[in-house]
Amino acid sequence: MQIGIVGTGMVGAAIAFSLAQEGPAEKLILIDANSERATAEAMDISHATPFSFGAKVVAGDYKDLKQAGIIIITAGANQKPGETRLDLLAKNVSIFKSIIPEIVKYAPNAILIIATNPVDIMTEVTLKLSGFPKNRVLGTGTVLDSARFRSILGRHLGISPKSIHANVIGEHGDSEVLLWSSAVAGTSCVERIAKETDVVLDKVVKGSIDNEVRNAAYAIIKGKGATYYGIAAATQYIVSSIISDKHAILTISSHHDKGIGGYNNICYSMPSVISKNGVETALLPAMCDEEKEALSQSAETLAEYTKKALDML
Q1: Per CATH, which fold does 143-311 belong to?
Q2: Model pTM greater than 0.90?
Q3: pLDDT at 82
Q4: Out of 172, 247, 255, 256, which one is annotated catalytic?
């Protein structure tokens, strides 16, 4: 399958490199407003293909997306130190108003994956601008946040993060919700594992882990200017799940006609089945009352800013 990547900044380039290394795309088409940069990134990544999966990597334009089955959109303003993802809204809505019609013109049957922040709102903006069915427009959502949760929790428990099943839902941002009540390691709840291994996992420790997960991006941006490796790996896994028709359950962001707390017609992250068709279905996870309330507040925040974004179209 051919895959287009619109935006070859640090995130777009890292995604392209990850896909070229791990597969499963046959051809990657890199597009950027700065065509010289897209050409340079394609050249640099292609030089690594003898050691990797071997995808063909080229720079191109929107007309070159005619055969693309998946298009990943990373174009947009970068999040600066001190900025929230929601601060980027007006800048990125303006950018999407110019690029989405071009994508629709040349690739009307593609699945669109949005990685641009604020990702939940930009996914809804893309859905409206494209007119695509909702199963073919999804955001990277909290796939990375869930990975951060598992990584940090695994480190604390001394257990491989691959053996931990713990999800983050709602907004990919400050109001995201960590689902502690359903977090398990192997087949046991994490509290039981902690007790059996004499690891402290009380309210204070959970709060510290929650804070580290929630603020990971801010810490990384402060230290090196941007996050890109984690989101690249997350996006590669989403793409692989689509192409391989895995029916994997991932916390991507997608449109919900009937949202949590009565906040309808917005995009946010929930565990969702991903196949060759895109989003098959979203699943409602088990939640305690505190998590339900937090998710409702997250949906309220997204509804407010989604309305502002759609008013800009």
Answers
A1: L-2-Hydroxyisocaproate Dehydrogenase; Chain A, domain 2 (3.90.110)
A2: yes
A3: 80
A4: 172
